[in-house]
From TrEMBL:
InterPro entries: Him1/Fmp52 (IPR014843), NAD(P)-bd_dom_sf (IPR036291). It holds the Pfam family HIM1. Transmembrane segments: none annotated. This is Uncharacterized protein YbjT (DUF2867 family). Signal peptide: none annotated. SUPFAM superfamilies: NAD(P)-binding Rossmann-fold domains. It comes from the Bacteria.
Amino acid sequence: MYLTPQRILLAGATGLTGEHLLDRLLNERTVERVLAPSRRPLAEHPHLENPVGELADLLPQLQGPLDTAFCCLGTTIKQAGSQEAFRAVDYELVLAFAERAKALGVRHLLVISALGANARSLVFYNRVKGELEQALQSLGFEQLTIARPSLLLGNRSQPRPGEGLAAPLMRLIPGNYRAIEACTLARALWRLALEEGQGVRIVESTELRQLGR
């Protein structure tokens, strides 16, 4: 069975995947409101509400009711500057966003995690993602969808040279490790948002590519 999300909360609207997702949401005739806090102003749209500032400061000011929330937040340890700063964004800020979404009545939360997320991993990045997934599941959303994409491809505002070098190879690797276009991920997230369900669903990269075709 499919639902039509009407009132949507989006974090990360200026990011690689968030930009594609925002464009899709604003072009869906059934979406009446998109609440998208961001650091820099977004282009005006009659169905867009865009508080500007630091997300952590804006969260208490956000108002509902809302039906569905998408979290496209994410950084790298290199961009953040340290493991502690990375965790502050990819764990603490995402969790705070989810808690606020729950308080505003959101029934379905969709979050971008990462391929290899595992709370017991020896790799710091994967461990933080896994710990986040566990924390999100404990919040008790009626429906929680966790997307685990592989390397994301697309035009970033801040290029990542390492990803650029790896991209050609990652396009050829089969299965979950094959790179995925950000626009494909955005389409997959929207399709997943339309699916009515209960409990937790974890969607690996291969399925995300299929859903986003």
